[in-house]
Amino acid sequence: MTAEPTDTVTLLRELEPVVEQNVNRHLSVAKEWFPHEYVPWSDGTNFDGFLGGEAWDESQSKISDVARTSLIVNLLTEDNLPSYHHEIATTFGRDGAWGTWVHRWTAEEGRHGIAIRDYLLATRAVDPVALERARMRHMEEGFSNSYDGVIGSVAYVSFQELATRVSHRNTGKLSGDPLCEALLAKVANDENLHMLFYRNVLSAAFELAPNETMKTILEVVKTFQMPGHGIEGFTRKSVEIAKAGVYDLRLHHDDVLSPVLRQVRVFERDDLSAEGEAARTELANFMSDLDKAASRFTERRDAMRAKAAERGKILPQV
Question: What are phi and psi of 2, to 5 degrees?
């Protein structure tokens, strides 16, 4: 078995033809859309402060508390784009096909935060002061890539983009507002196309360095965190979001990890060394344990919802 390329310069060079092909593919299928078309501007009114408008009050919001929480988490996650751009530009570079992708991805991600914030403020769905303070705190923390090298970065975003797509789509459904759902469907479609790009590059990395890629995927799957995990109160918010079915262990296992692992043929490969096989076995065991944990979570949630229904209380859920 020939030595696998693992240094960043070699991997970037050898993957560049695949990156170029997938940039061209992305540009051919990505559809232009405009955030302003999904914001009900005529509903907007001035807030208190410099313009002397009306102060925000929770009664003005037409969405549930958990939908508001999910929208805020999604928005604050998108807000950290400068840090994300820095991380991928540092890893992938700003030249050639890699650089073309880095800048295109950044431009597309930028409109997500614009669109969601404009919608939330125009509809008075959130406290604008609390939202701005939360944005400042979160962005001051920044974001650092937890995985070294090209393969680690590509593996992480392959899962993360799909996870974000699931979160946006389900948040839109939970909102109860057809306009919000339409807006977040647009955002989710962008995220899906980004996932396809990264997943295709990850597949190519598997062909170049199967054992290194297998070990890296194991590490990423075992330690995966959403990019917004640094948001203040994220653990409490994520539990609330999971209880509503926006993003939970079952979705993480079934709709995020499993599809990517299947598409890159993790459990079908026949080109692994003993070290790579050991990583695959550990990955299979981890996925099995995660599946069991997801089942326990959904069972407890179903029981909680049943008890709430007996008391005549309807819990928000997707």
Answer: -70, 155
What six digits make up the tokens of 191?
């995220």
Annotated ligand binding at 161? The verdict is yes
Annotated binding-site residue? 109: yes
What residue segments make up the domains of the chain, in order of their start? 8-47+57-310
Alpha carbon dihedral 262, 268, 274, 278, in 10-degree steps, equals 40
pTM to 2 decimals? 0.95
CB 69 within 8 A of CB 240: yes
Q: Are 87 and 148 in contact (CB under 8 A)?
A: no
Length of the chain: 318
Local structure of 54: helix, strand or coil: strand
Q: What is the pLDDT of residues 178-199, one digit of tens each?
A: 999 999 999 999 999 999 999 9
Looking at residue 312, its pLDDT comes to 80
* Right CATH for 8-47+57-310 from 1.10.620.20, 2.60.40.420, 1.10.390.10, 3.40.640.10: 1.10.620.20
| Residue 14 assigned as binding residue | no
Is residue 195 within 8 Å of residue 109, measured between CB atoms? no
86 assigned binding-site residue: no
Please write the tens of the pLDDT for every residue from 70-93: 999 999 999 999 999 999 999 999
The number of beta carbons lying within 10 Å of the beta carbon of residue 308 is: 12
> Quick count: other Cβ atoms within 10 Å of Cβ 271?
11
pLDDT at residue 238, rounded to an integer: 96
Q: Establish whether 140 is an annotated binding residue.
A: no
**Largest separation between any pair of C-alpha atoms in the chain:** 72
Amino acid making up residue 265: R
* Phi/psi at 7 (5° precision): -75, 150
Q: Find out whether 253 is annotated in a ligand binding site.
A: no
Contact status, residue 56 vs residue 124, Cβ threshold 8 Å = yes
pLDDT, residue 157, reads: 97
Give the residue-averaged pLDDT of 104-117. Answer: 98
